[in-house]
Design brief:
Elements (H helix, E strand, L loop, with lengths): L1 H4 L3 H11 L13 H8 L8 H11 L7 H6 L8
Length: about 80
């Protein structure tokens, strides 16, 4: 995706995080000025709807515990 947009992976990651409705800011862990400049480029990156869907799919954590256990058991204590 980064190659397709001609940007770094860090810019894609930051642009995706910034696009999340609950995120109002990000903390960038830049050690060098060039890293900070690269990260700032994320503000100009516009991800397509397909980009967003792809990133959402690969970052989906799935059902967390205990919800997956409840689903496995069919909504009760005894497995379905």
């Amino acid at each position: 995706m980064a190659t397709r947009h001609g940007v770094s992976a860090a810019q894609v990651a930051l642009a995706w995080v910034l696009s999340r409705p609950a995120v109002t800011s990000v903390v960038v862990g830049a050690k060098r000025p060039d890293q900070l400049a690269d990260s700032a480029g994320a503000a100009d990156l516009v991800l397509t709807a397909q980009d967003m869907a792809d990133l959402d799919a690969v970052t989906d954590p799935g059902r967390s515990y205990p919800q997956w256990v409840w689903d496995f058991a069919g909504g009760g204590r005894v497995p379905a």
